[in-house]
Amino acid sequence: MTAATYLYLISLINNFRESFHYLMILLVIPIVISGVTILIWHIEEIKDKSKPNFWLKSSIVSVFIASFISCFLPSEKTMYLMIGANYLEKSGIPTKVEQVINKKLNEYLLEEVKK
Which residues lie below 8 Å from residue 55, measured CB to CB, with a gap of 6+? Predict the structure, then answer.
């Protein structure tokens, strides 16, 4: 896949993530309305509470599903970091950095042993 494809997918996934956030916010409205309706009907002792109960339960389940999906979709910044790390691994620079770190660590350990 090319870099342009990755950038397109990043923006697309980020839009999905934002839409799940908006969905969670919009689903709060039916939860509040259903809860208030159930309380009013409970006070008035109306027997048939199935319709507000259905809306309340389905809204709560939808909020949990949207928040679960939203939690596992990475943010735009995280996706850019993942692509950068992928290209960095392919370039071979991390192995050179690791070699330099190992060399410096070995020098440090030799100095500590001499003391």
Answer: 30, 33, 34
